[in-house]
Write a structure and sequence with these properties.
With 305 residues, the protein is of the alpha/beta class. The chain is 40% helix and 12% strand.
């Protein structure tokens, strides 16, 4: 395989996971963005909630100076605010839509072209169809708002039974939902995360083949399914974490599946995004060392393709 993965994808990192102190929208945002922007390994960065407009302007200047592509993640703002885009309570649902619109505005300030988000909780079999209608209504409003600002949306699929317990969701269900939204908003799509694949009890090729026509973004990382582990659930520990599900072998298989479905392919004008999503599991774990270890796993996996 060509060692230059930059010829095949825009390699990015989720800033607010690698540096979790910034997740609430404040903290050492500018300096940590600068650290990533100056690393030639990455061509893109995925930024979350930034409360202070002045800080957003500083971040934009750093990104522009380093010619970094930028994506925006609304997941942390939605989770921290306990927002639910598929709530059956109209006021709660509109509050969630309002938060997503605020994230769209921030994304536009930073020069992003897409905002990622997650659905709300799955309400169970009896109310799932009603919740899906609520989610579609929310997204039609948010997509229209984003379209006015040249921002597309991407729904990240999460587990339904282990940790986040989201409506979206298992890949067949997610794909059907995305195709429905695409009838009005063709630039809408799904984000799939290797970290969530074991939590959904899915396998690389069947899941990715199901999603291939609606897939717009990929994340890679790890998770733990052992309830006795301190990293149990959707905590994004480093690759190779004790008891974890993903390491070099699993990343290699996942990348091979991305090539097989055509998500990764030579000669694409717009390089598809693949983002690292990893998080320190304690104060003692260095973000810098975590990023370096993740880069090493990526290099090893890519060399096997």
């Amino acid at each position: 395989m060509d060692p230059n993965w930059q010829d095949f994808c825009t390699l990015s990192i989720v800033h607010f996971m690698a540096f979790p102190k910034v997740m609430p929208g404040d903290g050492p945002i500018v300096e940590t963005v600068q650290q990533i922007a100056e690393d030639p390994f990455f061509q893109g960065i995925e930024i979350g909630w930034i409360k202070d407009p002045a800080v957003r302007r500083e971040v934009k200047a750093v990104l522009d100076a380093n010619d970094m592509k930028v994506g925006h993640g609304a997941q942390s703002a939605l989770l921290i605010g306990k927002h639910n885009l598929n709530s059956l309570d109209a006021a709660e649902r509109q509050a969630a839509v309002g938060q997503l619109k605020a994230n769209i505005d921030e994304a536009a300030e930073l020069g992003a072209k897409r905002v990622a988000f997650l659905s709300g909780k799955d309400p169970g079999d009896e109310l799932r169809a009603e919740a899906l209608e609520a989610l579609v209504a929310s997204l039609e409003e948010a997509c229209a708002y984003g379209q006015e600002r040249a921002i597309a949306l991407a729904c990240e699929t999460f587990d339904r039974t282990v940790d986040k317990k989201c409506l979206i969701g298992p890949s067949p269900y997610a794909a059907e939902f995305a195709r429905r939204v695409r009838q009005k908003y063709p630039d809408f799509g799904l984000m799939y995360d290797l970290s969530h694949m074991p939590l959904l009890y899915e396998e690389p090729l069947p899941a990715l083949a199901t999603l291939k026509d609606v897939l717009v973004h990929i994340h890679v990382g790890n998770c733990v399914l052992d309830p006795a582990s301190p990293a149990y659930g959707d905590l994004h520990p480093r690759f190779g974490f004790p008891g974890g599900e993903n390491d070099v072998d699993e990343l290699t298989a996942f990348l091979k599946a991305l090539f097989e479905i055509g998500y990764l392919a030579e000669g694409k004008q717009d390089k598809p995004w693949v983002g690292f999503e990893v998080k320190p599991q304690s104060e003692a774990e260095s973000s810098t060392e975590l990023i370096e270890a993740t880069k090493d796993v990526w290099r090893r996996a890519w060399s096997r393709l």
